[in-house]
Design goal:
Strand content: 5-15%
Number of domains: 2
Bound molecules: zinc ion
Number of strands: 5
Distance between the termini: 55 Å
Largest sheet: 5 strands, mixed
Strand order of the largest sheet: 1-2-3-5-4
C-alpha cells in the first residue's frame, strides 16, 4: 500500500511538472511525419493503407484549408488514428480535437476510408485553435463545416451520410423538427450535443448557404474578426442581421427540399442511415 501511494504521489508530481505536454504516446505509438501533418497510431489500429491515406488527405486538406483561410500554421497537425469507433464496453469514440490540439479519428466501418469523413472539419478547428479563448462555438462549428464541404465534397460522414445538404437540412424543417438557428446560436452548449442530429445539419446548411449566397470570402472575412461570431459580425459582413439571414436561409432551404422529386423516399432512406444513432430532440 505504502509503495503504491508513493508511486501515485510521484506520478502526481510528474504530472504537475509537465502539465502542458501531451501524454506522449510517442513511445508506444507508431508515427509518420509529413510536411504539415504527423500521423500516429497504436499498433493494430491502422492498416498501412489507412496511414498512407491519412498522410495524403492530411497534406491535401492542409493546402486547401490554408488557401481558403488565407493563412498557414506555425506547427504541424497531429492526427491520431484511434481504431474502431465502437469500444468493447459499448461506448463510441467520436472525431474531435483534444486539449493539446491533436485530431482524434475513429474508424466507423470496415474500410479505412471511414476514418476520414470528419478530417477536414477537425483540421479547420486546429487552424483556429489559438483563438480558442474567443471561440463562439456556433460560428466555429459552422465555419468548420462550410470549409470542409468546399475541400471535401464527398459528404460521406455525419451528418450527411452521402445525401445532399438541402435534403438533410430541409427534411428537419419540413417535418417540423427544426431548432431555430437563433436558439442554436444562443444556447449552443445546451443544444449542440443533445440535439446533435439537427444542430449539425441545420447550422452547417446555414453556413454553406451563407457562403453560396454572400460569398465564401465574406464568411472567411468574418472568421478573421477577433471575436468572430458576434451578432454585429453578421450585419457587418453579410449586410443583413442574423434573423433576416436565418429567415432567408430557411425559406430557400425549404424551397430546395420541396423541389426534390418524391422527397419522402430519400428522406426515409436518410433517416435509416447512421443518423438514426444520433440524438434528436423535440418536435415529436
Ligand atoms: Zn466541430
Amino acid at each position: 500500500m505504502k509503495d503504491s501511494s508513493r508511486r501515485q504521489a510521484a506520478a502526481f508530481l510528474i504530472l504537475l511538472a509537465v502539465p502542458f505536454l501531451p501524454p506522449t504516446a510517442a513511445a508506444e505509438n507508431l508515427r509518420r511525419e509529413g510536411e504539415h501533418v504527423i500521423v500516429e497510431w497504436g499498433d493494430g489500429n491502422a492498416s498501412p493503407e489507412a496511414v498512407e491515406a491519412a498522410m495524403e488527405l492530411g497534406e491535401t486538406y492542409f493546402a486547401a484549408i490554408s488557401g481558403m483561410l488565407g493563412h498557414g500554421l506555425d506547427r504541424r497537425i497531429v492526427i491520431l488514428l484511434q481504431g474502431a469507433a465502437e469500444r468493447p464496453d459499448g461506448s463510441r469514440g467520436y472525431p474531435r480535437v483534444d486539449v493539446w490540439g491533436r485530431i482524434l479519428l475513429y474508424r466507423f466501418g470496415p474500410t479505412h476510408h471511414s476514418y476520414f469523413s470528419a478530417l477536414a472539419h477537425e483540421m479547420v478547428h486546429v487552424f483556429r485553435i489559438d483563438r480558442r479563448p474567443h471561440f463562439d462555438m456556433f460560428f466555429e462549428e459552422g465555419l468548420a463545416e462550410m470549409v470542409a464541404l468546399r475541400v471535401d465534397d464527398s459528404r460521406e460522414g455525419f451528418p450527411w451520410y452521402g445525401f445532399p445538404v438541402d435534403l438533410v437540412a430541409g427534411q428537419w424543417i419540413a417535418r417540423g423538427k427544426e431548432i431555430p438557428l437563433a436558439e442554436l446560436r444562443e444556447r449552443h452548449e445546451d443544444l449542440n450535443l443533445p440535439c446533435k442530429a439537427q444542430a449539425y445539419a441545420l447550422r452547417s446548411s446555414f453556413f454553406d448557404w451563407l457562403g453560396r449566397a454572400r460569398g465564401d470570402e465574406a464568411v472567411v472575412a468574418m472568421a478573421s474578426e477577433k471575436r468572430a461570431g458576434r451578432l454585429e459580425d453578421y450585419e457587418k459582413h453579410f449586410g443583413a442581421d442574423f434573423d433576416e439571414l436565418a429567415a432567408a436561409w430557411r425559406e430557400e432551404t425549404l424551397d430546395a427540399y420541396r423541389a426534390i422529386q418524391n422527397a419522402d423516399d430519400p428522406t426515409e432512406e436518410y433517416l435509416r442511415s447512421p443518423i438514426r444513432y444520433m440524438d434528436v430532440c423535440g418536435g415529436d
